[in-house]
């Protein structure tokens, strides 16, 4: 859980993952954004159950998005098979040359694809 009583965790304190791809940093930014909004509402009189909502939402994001993306990033970086590395490099080069593919890739890397 990201919350126990008056203690609420965010960022690296809340979730550990492989650093490949910066997903921990991106997730921490999203944690801080959501937690700040929830804290503002609680401090302005709304129920502190909002902090439980934060806890569940961000933990699910850490497990479903951050862990899976970090694992994929690591596997991509650690490819041993020459053909697989060449295919990965072709896909990345193709994405870099195509603005729509580049944007899609960056939205996923920044964890923004579901917010836009």
Structural account:
It is a single chain. By secondary structure, the protein is mainly alpha-helical. It is 66% helix and 3% strand. It has helices at 23-43, 49-77, 82-97, 99-109, and strands at residues 3-4, 7-8. It has a two-stranded antiparallel sheet with strand order 1-2. Helix 1 runs antiparallel to helix 2 and helix 3 packs across helix 4. It starts with a strand and ends in a 7-residue tail after the last helix. 20% of the residues are buried. The mean pLDDT is 89.
Q: How would the global form be characterised? A: elongated
Order of helices and strands: EEHHHH
Largest sheet: 2 strands, antiparallel
Work out the number of β strands. 2
Low-confidence residue ranges: none
Class from secondary-structure proportions? mainly alpha
Strand order of the largest sheet: 1-2
Mean pLDDT over the full residue set: 89
Q: DSSP helix count?
A: 4
In terms of DSSP E residues, the strand content is under 5%
State Rg: 17 Å
Rounded to the nearest angstrom, the distance between the terminal CA atoms is: 27 Å
- Share of residues in helices: 55-70%
Write the layout of secondary structure elements.
Elements: E1 3-4, E2 7-8, H1 23-43, H2 49-77, H3 82-97, H4 99-109
Antiparallel strand pairs: 1-2
